[in-house]
Design brief:
about 180 residues, alpha+beta, 2 helices, Outer Surface Protein A, domain 3
């Protein structure tokens, strides 16, 4: 039995989990999320908890058991608290700003990079060197932040680039000092 899969998902007040065929629906104060559940996995709802069970002990079903439970748990957390990721833009003259429904980043390229913000995501730029992405879907927030970071990942010689807040970049010596 999966150690993660057999644990119930505790539902805080104001959160409802329901099944509509093979689709799990989670509703809470911040919004609604849905998840397609494979046919071999069942999601049952009791008073204040959701239970994830599997039909058989096939290897594929076992691997999905804990995953589906973790995804439902992330959905419950998303509709109650939400998810927030922050990025730092580091470098002389590097900056970010919002332009309508898109993020405009100047990183020393010949042109500023413009990224459309997906629906359901709130992106703010409190200062020119900080980007904050918030939303209820953990996957959507993480994918957007990784897409932004991929434009100019932090480089190891001067430390310039886009990095997560709190991320440490191990600096390398230049070839003049590496003797």
């Amino acid at each position: 039995m999966s150690r993660v899969g057999k644990q119930p998902v505790m539902l805080p007040k104001g959160v409802k989990v329901s099944m509509n065929g093979q689709v799990a629906l989670v509703e809470g104060p911040k919004g609604k999320l849905s998840l397609n559940v494979p046919p071999a996995i069942q999601v049952g709802v009791e008073a204040d908890k959701a239970l994830v069970k599997r039909e058989n002990d096939l290897k594929a079903t076992k691997s999905l058991h804990g995953t589906i439970r973790a995804l439902i748990n992330n959905m419950v957390k998303g509709v109650t608290e939400g998810y927030k990721r922050e990025l730092d833009v580091i470098g002389v003259g590097y900056k970010a700003q919002m332009k309508g429904a898109s993020l405009l980043i100047s990183l020393g390229f010949s042109h500023p990079v413009e990224i459309k913000v997906p629906a359901g995501l709130k992106v703010t730029v409190p200062n020119p060197n900080r980007i904050v992405a918030e939303g209820i879907d953990k996957q959507q927030v993480s994918e957007f932040v990784c897409k932004v970071r991929k434009i100019y990942p932090p480089e190891p010689y001067q430390g310039k680039g886009i990095r997560f807040v709190g991320e440490e970049v191990k600096k390398k010596l230049g070839k003049a000092l590496a003797k």
